[in-house]
Structure formats: structure tokens, C-alpha cells
Predict the structure.
Amino acid sequence: MCLFAGQVSAQQTTAAPDDVVDELFAYGEEGDEEVGNFDFLYNERGELLEYDELMTENIINEAKSHIGKRYVYGSKGPRTFDCSGFTSYVYKHQNNVWIGASSREQYAINMPIKRQEMQAGDLVFFTSPRSGKGVGHVGIVLSYDPQTNVFTFIHASTKEGVKISKSTEGYYQRRYVGVRRVK
């Protein structure tokens, strides 16, 4: 659980001057997610997070919350998904970011990066049986190991629904197209 205005721990309130605590609470009622002039937040383990790290953690947690949901072609969620419906739903629902509607559009409008620059939260693209050599499938990177060049990703699989896969699985290893960073 992240700490936002109205959710300051006892340790923080005793360490912070009263005027800082008052400023935190002045931004709204309990539960508001606004943090005023503060550019720091804490994750559920109490670790200090940068804003981008928090966004990535939110994306990953949102994506994982849909594991097991069925694949339905053209579905944009939240009960069923196709691959691009899943990625666009996760980004829009969690951080109000539009990444494109189709896997091809998501590939075209987001920032190209090298595989070696891949990190959690990036979009990873593959061909599909119907797309020929073009983009036909998309997922969200969960982790990347630069030593082995292996990554894990979460996606809406046509046969198994929302699931986690590895780049070393033969199907995905042969069909890898590229990776994009959401702008």
C-alpha cells in the first residue's frame, strides 16, 4: 500500500515538522492521492519510490490482477481481453495513459528502444500467425535480465488468457519483433 495524503505513518509524523504534516493534510480529504509539493512516495514495503518507479509498480500490479481472465478477440476488458485491449486497458486504467488501440498502433506511436534497454513496464511485440512478419501481438515487460537477455512479460494469450510468459519459450523466441517505451 502506498502512502498518500491522509495516510502518513506514525514514524513519519513524528519525524516531520508540524507545518509539513499540516501541508500534507491540507490537500484534501482522506484518500486523496495528491501529495502537494512532495516528489516522493513509499511502496508497500516502506521503500522510497521515484514517480516513474511508482507508475511502473502500479502498471505491473494492475496487469497481474487480471491473470487468468479469458481472451476474446476485440475485447478491451475488464472481464475479457485481447492482447492490445489488455495493454491499453492496463495503462489507461492505472495511469490514464493512452498507448494506442491495436498492437500495430502501439508499436508505431510509442518510443522505440533497444532490447538491451528494456525494463519493467515497457511494451514488447511479436508477430502472430495472422500478421505475417508484421506486429500481431503485444505484452508488458515484467522483468529483464541483461546477463542472459531473457525477459518475462504478461499478455493476453489466445489459448490461455492473461498469463505470464518468458522470452525463451520457442513460440515467442521465434516471433520477437521489438520493444517500445510508453511516452
